[in-house]
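Thread title: Can someone regenerate the structure for this chain?

I was given the following input by a collaborator and told the matching C-alpha coordinates would be attached. They weren't. Posting the sequence so someone can regenerate them.
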Amino acid sequence: MDIQEVLQWTDEQVFAKTGKHLDSLQKAILEGTWQHQKYGEIAENYNCSHDHVKKQAWKLWKLLSDILEEDIKQSNFRSLFETLGSYSNITNNCVNIVNNSVNLNGKNSQFSEITQHQNPDLQKDRSHPPNNNNPNLNQPRKSDLTEAPEVLSFYDRTSELSTLKQWILEEQMRLITIYGLSEIGKSAIAVQLIKEIQQEFDIIIWRSLSQKPLLLELKTNLIQCLSQTEDSPLPTVLDYFRSYRCLLILDDLQSIFISGQLAGQYLPNYEDYGLFFKQIATSCHPSCLILLSWEKPREIYILEGKNSCIRTLHLQGLGEGGKAILEEKELLDEEQWLELINLYQGHPMALKLIANTIDNLFNGYVSNFLNSKTVFLGDLEFLFQSHWQRLSVVEKQIIIEMANQSEEVEIEPMILVLKLSLDEIINGIQSLQRRGLLERGKEANHSKFFLDPLFKIYMSKKGIN
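Best answer:
Regenerated them for you:
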Protein backbone atom coordinates (compact mmCIF):
# COMPACT_ATOMS: atom_id res chain seq x y z
CA MET A 1 0.00 0.00 0.00
CA ASP A 2 1.29 3.49 -0.83
CA ILE A 3 0.25 6.94 0.35
CA GLN A 4 -1.83 7.67 -2.76
CA GLU A 5 -3.98 4.62 -2.06
CA VAL A 6 -4.37 5.73 1.56
CA LEU A 7 -5.31 9.28 0.49
CA GLN A 8 -7.88 8.00 -2.00
CA TRP A 9 -9.49 5.63 0.48
CA THR A 10 -9.44 8.16 3.33
CA ASP A 11 -10.96 10.83 1.09
CA GLU A 12 -13.82 8.49 0.19
CA GLN A 13 -14.56 7.69 3.84
CA VAL A 14 -14.37 11.33 4.94
CA PHE A 15 -16.70 12.33 2.09
CA ALA A 16 -19.15 9.57 3.03
CA LYS A 17 -19.13 10.79 6.64
CA THR A 18 -19.12 14.57 6.17
CA GLY A 19 -20.07 15.29 2.55
CA LYS A 20 -16.71 17.05 2.11
CA HIS A 21 -13.49 15.86 0.49
CA LEU A 22 -10.10 16.19 2.16
CA ASP A 23 -8.66 19.67 1.68
CA SER A 24 -5.08 20.31 0.58
CA LEU A 25 -3.75 20.80 4.13
CA GLN A 26 -5.40 17.60 5.37
CA LYS A 27 -3.78 15.71 2.50
CA ALA A 28 -0.42 17.34 3.31
CA ILE A 29 -0.76 16.25 6.96
CA LEU A 30 -1.54 12.66 5.97
CA GLU A 31 1.25 12.54 3.41
CA GLY A 32 3.78 14.14 5.75
CA THR A 33 2.80 11.84 8.62
CA TRP A 34 3.16 8.82 6.31
CA GLN A 35 6.69 10.00 5.54
CA HIS A 36 7.44 10.36 9.28
CA GLN A 37 7.62 14.16 9.09
CA LYS A 38 6.98 16.27 12.17
CA TYR A 39 4.35 19.02 12.19
CA GLY A 40 7.07 21.65 11.86
CA GLU A 41 8.32 20.09 8.62
CA ILE A 42 4.77 19.81 7.27
CA ALA A 43 4.13 23.45 8.18
CA GLU A 44 7.32 24.56 6.43
CA ASN A 45 6.46 22.63 3.27
CA TYR A 46 2.89 23.93 3.29
CA ASN A 47 4.03 27.50 4.10
CA CYS A 48 1.93 27.97 7.24
CA SER A 49 2.48 28.05 11.01
CA HIS A 50 3.30 25.02 13.16
CA ASP A 51 0.34 25.75 15.48
CA HIS A 52 -2.09 25.87 12.55
CA VAL A 53 -0.91 22.48 11.28
CA LYS A 54 -1.11 21.03 14.81
CA LYS A 55 -4.69 22.27 15.29
CA GLN A 56 -5.85 20.99 11.91
CA ALA A 57 -4.10 17.65 12.47
CA TRP A 58 -5.88 17.17 15.80
CA LYS A 59 -9.23 17.74 14.06
CA LEU A 60 -8.29 15.30 11.30
CA TRP A 61 -7.20 12.56 13.73
CA LYS A 62 -10.42 13.01 15.68
CA LEU A 63 -12.48 12.73 12.50
CA LEU A 64 -10.67 9.56 11.43
CA SER A 65 -10.99 8.17 14.96
CA ASP A 66 -14.76 8.72 14.84
CA ILE A 67 -15.03 7.06 11.43
CA LEU A 68 -12.91 4.02 12.29
CA GLU A 69 -13.80 3.82 15.99
CA GLU A 70 -10.08 3.67 16.69
CA ASP A 71 -7.75 6.16 18.38
CA ILE A 72 -5.99 7.50 15.29
CA LYS A 73 -3.10 9.91 15.86
CA GLN A 74 0.19 10.95 14.32
CA SER A 75 2.20 8.25 16.08
CA ASN A 76 0.08 5.30 14.94
CA PHE A 77 -1.49 6.47 11.67
CA ARG A 78 0.86 4.62 9.32
CA SER A 79 1.09 1.41 11.33
CA LEU A 80 -2.70 1.16 11.61
CA PHE A 81 -3.26 1.65 7.89
CA GLU A 82 -0.47 -0.73 6.97
CA THR A 83 -2.14 -3.31 9.21
CA LEU A 84 -5.46 -2.64 7.53
CA GLY A 85 -3.82 -2.91 4.10
CA SER A 86 -2.26 -6.27 4.91
CA TYR A 87 -5.62 -7.61 6.04
CA SER A 88 -7.61 -6.43 3.06
CA ASN A 89 -7.21 -5.11 -0.46
CA ILE A 90 -7.92 -1.46 0.16
CA THR A 91 -7.67 -0.38 -3.48
CA ASN A 92 -10.45 -2.69 -4.60
CA ASN A 93 -12.96 -1.09 -2.25
CA CYS A 94 -13.12 -4.21 -0.08
CA VAL A 95 -13.07 -1.94 2.96
CA ASN A 96 -16.20 0.11 3.55
CA ILE A 97 -17.55 1.96 6.53
CA VAL A 98 -20.93 0.53 7.49
CA ASN A 99 -22.74 1.86 10.53
CA ASN A 100 -19.45 2.99 12.07
CA SER A 101 -17.94 -0.46 11.52
CA VAL A 102 -15.45 -1.70 8.94
CA ASN A 103 -16.75 -4.24 6.42
CA LEU A 104 -13.83 -6.44 5.36
CA ASN A 105 -14.57 -8.56 2.26
CA GLY A 106 -18.20 -8.67 3.27
CA LYS A 107 -17.52 -9.62 6.89
CA ASN A 108 -18.77 -7.00 9.33
CA SER A 109 -16.10 -6.59 11.98
CA GLN A 110 -14.94 -3.79 14.26
CA PHE A 111 -11.72 -2.15 13.06
CA SER A 112 -10.43 -2.26 16.62
CA GLU A 113 -10.77 -6.04 16.68
CA ILE A 114 -8.69 -6.33 13.50
CA THR A 115 -5.89 -4.08 14.67
CA GLN A 116 -5.87 -5.68 18.09
CA HIS A 117 -5.46 -9.10 16.49
CA GLN A 118 -2.61 -7.83 14.32
CA ASN A 119 -0.96 -5.65 16.97
CA PRO A 120 -2.36 -5.79 20.55
CA ASP A 121 -0.07 -2.97 21.72
CA LEU A 122 -2.04 -0.50 19.62
CA GLN A 123 -4.97 -0.89 22.03
CA LYS A 124 -3.15 0.38 25.11
CA ASP A 125 -3.62 4.09 24.56
CA ARG A 126 -7.29 4.31 23.62
CA SER A 127 -9.29 7.19 25.06
CA HIS A 128 -12.72 6.55 23.54
CA PRO A 129 -13.78 2.89 23.46
CA PRO A 130 -16.18 1.96 20.66
CA ASN A 131 -18.74 0.26 22.89
CA ASN A 132 -21.73 2.61 22.80
CA ASN A 133 -23.33 0.66 25.66
CA ASN A 134 -20.49 1.54 28.00
CA PRO A 135 -21.96 3.72 30.80
CA ASN A 136 -18.59 5.45 31.20
CA LEU A 137 -18.34 6.43 27.52
CA ASN A 138 -18.95 10.13 28.26
CA GLN A 139 -16.78 10.26 31.36
CA PRO A 140 -13.09 11.20 31.56
CA ARG A 141 -10.67 8.43 32.48
CA LYS A 142 -9.73 10.26 35.67
CA SER A 143 -11.34 13.25 37.39
CA ASP A 144 -10.74 14.99 40.69
CA LEU A 145 -13.27 17.77 41.31
CA THR A 146 -13.19 17.62 45.10
CA GLU A 147 -12.13 21.28 45.29
CA ALA A 148 -14.70 22.49 42.75
CA PRO A 149 -17.62 24.45 44.23
CA GLU A 150 -21.13 23.04 44.20
CA VAL A 151 -23.25 25.01 41.74
CA LEU A 152 -26.93 24.74 42.62
CA SER A 153 -28.18 27.14 39.95
CA PHE A 154 -26.59 27.95 36.62
CA TYR A 155 -27.96 30.89 34.66
CA ASP A 156 -27.86 31.39 30.92
CA ARG A 157 -24.29 31.81 29.63
CA THR A 158 -24.91 30.38 26.16
CA SER A 159 -22.66 32.81 24.33
CA GLU A 160 -19.76 32.53 26.76
CA LEU A 161 -19.96 28.72 26.88
CA SER A 162 -20.01 28.58 23.08
CA THR A 163 -16.88 30.74 22.95
CA LEU A 164 -15.06 28.61 25.52
CA LYS A 165 -15.94 25.37 23.75
CA GLN A 166 -14.75 26.77 20.44
CA TRP A 167 -11.42 27.82 21.98
CA ILE A 168 -10.89 24.43 23.62
CA LEU A 169 -12.36 21.91 21.19
CA GLU A 170 -11.88 23.59 17.83
CA GLU A 171 -8.95 25.99 18.23
CA GLN A 172 -7.04 23.82 20.73
CA MET A 173 -6.12 26.66 23.08
CA ARG A 174 -3.68 25.57 25.77
CA LEU A 175 -4.29 28.31 28.35
CA ILE A 176 -7.53 30.21 29.01
CA THR A 177 -8.03 32.88 31.66
CA ILE A 178 -11.55 33.67 32.88
CA TYR A 179 -11.49 36.83 34.98
CA GLY A 180 -14.01 39.26 36.43
CA LEU A 181 -15.49 40.69 39.61
CA SER A 182 -16.00 38.53 42.66
CA GLU A 183 -19.16 36.35 42.51
CA ILE A 184 -19.74 37.20 38.84
CA GLY A 185 -19.97 33.46 38.03
CA LYS A 186 -16.45 32.39 36.99
CA SER A 187 -16.51 29.11 38.91
CA ALA A 188 -20.09 28.42 37.90
CA ILE A 189 -19.36 28.68 34.18
CA ALA A 190 -16.26 26.49 34.58
CA VAL A 191 -18.29 23.79 36.34
CA GLN A 192 -20.92 23.90 33.61
CA LEU A 193 -18.21 23.80 30.93
CA ILE A 194 -16.81 20.60 32.45
CA LYS A 195 -20.23 18.98 32.26
CA GLU A 196 -20.50 19.78 28.57
CA ILE A 197 -17.00 18.80 27.38
CA GLN A 198 -15.82 16.17 29.86
CA GLN A 199 -16.06 13.38 27.27
CA GLU A 200 -13.28 15.10 25.28
CA PHE A 201 -10.69 14.66 28.05
CA ASP A 202 -8.80 11.79 29.62
CA ILE A 203 -8.12 13.62 32.90
CA ILE A 204 -9.89 16.56 34.60
CA ILE A 205 -8.60 18.16 37.81
CA TRP A 206 -9.81 21.22 39.74
CA ARG A 207 -7.59 22.94 42.29
CA SER A 208 -8.14 26.09 44.35
CA LEU A 209 -5.22 28.41 45.14
CA SER A 210 -7.07 30.09 48.02
CA GLN A 211 -4.65 28.54 50.53
CA LYS A 212 -1.67 29.86 48.56
CA PRO A 213 0.20 26.61 47.84
CA LEU A 214 3.72 27.08 46.52
CA LEU A 215 4.14 25.84 42.97
CA LEU A 216 6.24 22.87 44.10
CA GLU A 217 3.44 21.82 46.48
CA LEU A 218 0.84 22.16 43.73
CA LYS A 219 2.91 20.17 41.23
CA THR A 220 3.55 17.42 43.80
CA ASN A 221 -0.17 17.21 44.52
CA LEU A 222 -1.04 17.12 40.81
CA ILE A 223 1.51 14.40 40.01
CA GLN A 224 0.20 12.29 42.91
CA CYS A 225 -3.25 12.56 41.39
CA LEU A 226 -2.10 12.07 37.79
CA SER A 227 0.19 9.13 38.59
CA GLN A 228 -2.85 7.00 39.40
CA THR A 229 -3.28 6.68 35.62
CA GLU A 230 0.21 5.23 35.11
CA ASP A 231 2.01 2.06 36.15
CA SER A 232 5.24 4.09 35.93
CA PRO A 233 4.60 7.71 37.00
CA LEU A 234 5.79 10.43 34.65
CA PRO A 235 8.26 13.00 36.06
CA THR A 236 6.45 16.31 35.39
CA VAL A 237 2.97 17.78 34.99
CA LEU A 238 3.86 18.77 31.43
CA ASP A 239 4.70 15.14 30.62
CA TYR A 240 1.14 14.20 31.60
CA PHE A 241 -0.19 17.13 29.54
CA ARG A 242 1.66 15.67 26.55
CA SER A 243 0.73 12.04 27.15
CA TYR A 244 -2.96 12.57 27.89
CA ARG A 245 -5.58 15.15 27.06
CA CYS A 246 -5.85 16.88 30.43
CA LEU A 247 -8.09 19.70 31.62
CA LEU A 248 -6.72 21.50 34.69
CA ILE A 249 -8.68 24.31 36.38
CA LEU A 250 -6.90 26.58 38.88
CA ASP A 251 -9.39 28.69 40.85
CA ASP A 252 -8.79 31.79 43.02
CA LEU A 253 -5.61 32.75 41.18
CA GLN A 254 -5.74 36.25 42.70
CA SER A 255 -4.81 34.69 46.05
CA ILE A 256 -1.17 34.48 44.95
CA PHE A 257 -1.03 38.10 43.71
CA ILE A 258 0.16 41.09 45.76
CA SER A 259 -2.39 43.59 47.08
CA GLY A 260 -1.58 47.29 46.78
CA GLN A 261 0.41 46.79 43.56
CA LEU A 262 -0.49 46.77 39.88
CA ALA A 263 -2.64 43.78 38.88
CA GLY A 264 -1.20 40.34 38.29
CA GLN A 265 2.06 40.64 40.24
CA TYR A 266 3.00 37.56 42.23
CA LEU A 267 3.69 37.34 45.93
CA PRO A 268 7.33 36.70 46.90
CA ASN A 269 8.26 33.03 46.23
CA TYR A 270 5.32 32.63 43.83
CA GLU A 271 6.94 34.10 40.71
CA ASP A 272 7.58 30.61 39.33
CA TYR A 273 3.84 30.27 38.69
CA GLY A 274 4.30 32.75 35.86
CA LEU A 275 7.02 30.59 34.32
CA PHE A 276 4.81 27.51 34.72
CA PHE A 277 1.90 29.19 32.92
CA LYS A 278 4.22 30.34 30.13
CA GLN A 279 5.56 26.80 29.76
CA ILE A 280 2.02 25.40 29.48
CA ALA A 281 1.08 28.05 26.91
CA THR A 282 4.13 27.66 24.67
CA SER A 283 4.77 23.88 24.78
CA CYS A 284 3.21 21.40 22.35
CA HIS A 285 0.50 19.26 23.96
CA PRO A 286 -3.25 18.56 23.54
CA SER A 287 -4.25 19.67 27.05
CA CYS A 288 -5.78 22.86 28.46
CA LEU A 289 -5.22 24.93 31.61
CA ILE A 290 -8.04 27.25 32.74
CA LEU A 291 -7.28 30.04 35.24
CA LEU A 292 -10.10 31.64 37.25
CA SER A 293 -9.21 34.98 38.78
CA TRP A 294 -10.26 38.48 39.79
CA GLU A 295 -7.39 39.78 37.73
CA LYS A 296 -5.31 38.67 34.75
CA PRO A 297 -1.64 37.66 35.23
CA ARG A 298 0.83 40.04 33.62
CA GLU A 299 2.56 37.36 31.54
CA ILE A 300 -0.80 36.37 30.03
CA TYR A 301 -1.36 39.98 29.02
CA ILE A 302 2.05 39.97 27.32
CA LEU A 303 1.85 36.53 25.66
CA GLU A 304 -1.69 36.56 24.29
CA GLY A 305 -2.17 37.39 20.64
CA LYS A 306 -3.97 36.30 17.49
CA ASN A 307 -1.49 33.52 16.72
CA SER A 308 -0.91 32.38 20.30
CA CYS A 309 -2.58 29.45 22.06
CA ILE A 310 -3.81 31.75 24.83
CA ARG A 311 -7.29 33.28 25.16
CA THR A 312 -8.91 35.48 27.81
CA LEU A 313 -12.58 35.80 28.70
CA HIS A 314 -13.67 38.81 30.72
CA LEU A 315 -16.82 37.48 32.35
CA GLN A 316 -19.44 40.16 32.82
CA GLY A 317 -23.10 40.32 33.83
CA LEU A 318 -25.86 37.96 32.78
CA GLY A 319 -27.93 40.32 30.64
CA GLU A 320 -31.41 38.95 30.04
CA GLY A 321 -30.27 35.68 31.59
CA GLY A 322 -30.67 37.46 34.93
CA LYS A 323 -34.45 37.19 34.55
CA ALA A 324 -34.19 33.63 35.82
CA ILE A 325 -33.01 34.94 39.20
CA LEU A 326 -35.97 37.32 39.48
CA GLU A 327 -38.33 34.58 38.35
CA GLU A 328 -37.10 32.29 41.15
CA LYS A 329 -38.28 34.92 43.66
CA GLU A 330 -41.56 35.34 41.75
CA LEU A 331 -41.10 39.10 41.55
CA LEU A 332 -43.84 41.18 39.94
CA ASP A 333 -43.75 43.86 37.20
CA GLU A 334 -41.97 41.61 34.72
CA GLU A 335 -41.92 44.40 32.14
CA GLN A 336 -39.45 46.24 34.39
CA TRP A 337 -37.14 43.33 35.13
CA LEU A 338 -34.68 44.29 32.40
CA GLU A 339 -34.39 47.80 33.87
CA LEU A 340 -33.50 46.26 37.24
CA ILE A 341 -30.99 43.90 35.62
CA ASN A 342 -29.31 46.80 33.80
CA LEU A 343 -29.17 48.83 37.03
CA TYR A 344 -27.16 46.04 38.65
CA GLN A 345 -25.16 45.19 35.50
CA GLY A 346 -26.54 41.65 35.51
CA HIS A 347 -24.27 40.73 38.45
CA PRO A 348 -25.72 37.40 39.73
CA MET A 349 -24.99 38.00 43.42
CA ALA A 350 -26.31 41.57 43.26
CA LEU A 351 -29.52 40.39 41.58
CA LYS A 352 -30.03 37.68 44.21
CA LEU A 353 -29.56 40.21 47.03
CA ILE A 354 -31.86 42.78 45.52
CA ALA A 355 -34.49 40.17 44.65
CA ASN A 356 -34.61 39.16 48.32
CA THR A 357 -34.90 42.82 49.34
CA ILE A 358 -37.72 43.51 46.88
CA ASP A 359 -39.52 40.36 48.01
CA ASN A 360 -39.22 41.19 51.71
CA LEU A 361 -39.60 44.98 51.76
CA PHE A 362 -41.50 45.89 48.58
CA ASN A 363 -43.96 42.97 48.46
CA GLY A 364 -42.28 41.70 45.32
CA TYR A 365 -43.06 44.83 43.27
CA VAL A 366 -40.04 45.79 41.15
CA SER A 367 -41.71 49.08 40.22
CA ASN A 368 -41.95 50.15 43.87
CA PHE A 369 -38.24 49.55 44.36
CA LEU A 370 -37.26 51.38 41.16
CA ASN A 371 -39.49 54.32 42.14
CA SER A 372 -37.55 54.62 45.39
CA LYS A 373 -34.55 55.82 43.33
CA THR A 374 -32.07 53.90 45.45
CA VAL A 375 -29.39 51.39 44.61
CA PHE A 376 -29.00 48.85 47.38
CA LEU A 377 -25.75 46.85 47.50
CA GLY A 378 -26.03 45.07 50.83
CA ASP A 379 -23.39 42.38 51.30
CA LEU A 380 -22.00 43.23 47.88
CA GLU A 381 -20.21 46.19 49.49
CA PHE A 382 -17.87 43.77 51.29
CA LEU A 383 -16.97 42.12 47.99
CA PHE A 384 -16.19 45.46 46.36
CA GLN A 385 -14.20 46.51 49.41
CA SER A 386 -11.88 43.55 48.76
CA HIS A 387 -11.35 44.77 45.20
CA TRP A 388 -10.70 48.34 46.40
CA GLN A 389 -8.11 47.21 48.93
CA ARG A 390 -6.12 45.41 46.21
CA LEU A 391 -5.61 48.58 44.15
CA SER A 392 -2.30 50.44 43.97
CA VAL A 393 -2.08 54.13 44.91
CA VAL A 394 -1.99 55.19 41.24
CA GLU A 395 -4.99 52.99 40.40
CA LYS A 396 -6.98 54.54 43.24
CA GLN A 397 -6.17 58.04 41.98
CA ILE A 398 -7.30 57.14 38.46
CA ILE A 399 -10.45 55.37 39.57
CA ILE A 400 -11.50 58.22 41.88
CA GLU A 401 -11.12 60.70 39.03
CA MET A 402 -13.17 58.49 36.72
CA ALA A 403 -15.88 57.99 39.35
CA ASN A 404 -16.33 61.77 39.52
CA GLN A 405 -16.95 62.00 35.77
CA SER A 406 -20.33 61.43 34.17
CA GLU A 407 -18.86 60.53 30.79
CA GLU A 408 -16.05 58.42 29.40
CA VAL A 409 -12.59 59.80 30.18
CA GLU A 410 -9.58 60.27 27.91
CA ILE A 411 -5.97 59.78 28.97
CA GLU A 412 -4.59 63.27 28.27
CA PRO A 413 -6.88 65.23 30.64
CA MET A 414 -6.10 62.78 33.44
CA ILE A 415 -2.39 63.56 33.12
CA LEU A 416 -3.09 67.23 33.82
CA VAL A 417 -5.66 66.71 36.58
CA LEU A 418 -3.83 63.96 38.50
CA LYS A 419 -0.31 65.30 37.88
CA LEU A 420 0.88 61.82 37.05
CA SER A 421 3.33 60.87 34.32
CA LEU A 422 2.13 59.28 31.10
CA ASP A 423 3.80 56.01 32.14
CA GLU A 424 1.95 56.00 35.46
CA ILE A 425 -1.38 56.70 33.76
CA ILE A 426 -0.89 54.00 31.10
CA ASN A 427 0.30 51.39 33.61
CA GLY A 428 -2.58 52.24 35.93
CA ILE A 429 -5.23 52.02 33.20
CA GLN A 430 -3.88 48.72 31.87
CA SER A 431 -3.82 47.31 35.39
CA LEU A 432 -7.43 48.36 36.01
CA GLN A 433 -8.37 46.69 32.73
CA ARG A 434 -6.68 43.48 33.89
CA ARG A 435 -8.88 43.67 36.99
CA GLY A 436 -12.03 44.09 34.91
CA LEU A 437 -12.81 47.43 36.58
CA LEU A 438 -12.15 49.60 33.54
CA GLU A 439 -13.46 49.27 30.00
CA ARG A 440 -12.50 51.04 26.82
CA GLY A 441 -15.26 52.94 25.03
CA LYS A 442 -16.55 51.81 21.66
CA GLU A 443 -15.50 54.90 19.71
CA ALA A 444 -12.88 53.74 17.23
CA ASN A 445 -11.07 57.07 16.88
CA HIS A 446 -10.72 57.90 20.58
CA SER A 447 -9.15 56.11 23.54
CA LYS A 448 -11.85 56.75 26.12
CA PHE A 449 -12.43 54.67 29.21
CA PHE A 450 -15.23 54.17 31.69
CA LEU A 451 -15.48 52.67 35.16
CA ASP A 452 -17.56 49.58 35.91
CA PRO A 453 -20.96 51.14 36.78
CA LEU A 454 -21.61 48.89 39.78
CA PHE A 455 -18.19 49.63 41.24
CA LYS A 456 -18.86 53.32 40.63
CA ILE A 457 -22.03 53.01 42.72
CA TYR A 458 -20.02 51.34 45.49
CA MET A 459 -17.54 54.22 45.53
CA SER A 460 -20.35 56.75 45.69
CA LYS A 461 -22.01 54.97 48.61
CA LYS A 462 -18.73 54.72 50.50
CA GLY A 463 -17.96 58.38 49.87
CA ILE A 464 -14.67 57.58 48.10
CA ASN A 465 -13.70 60.73 46.22
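The chain is about 45% helix and 10% strand.
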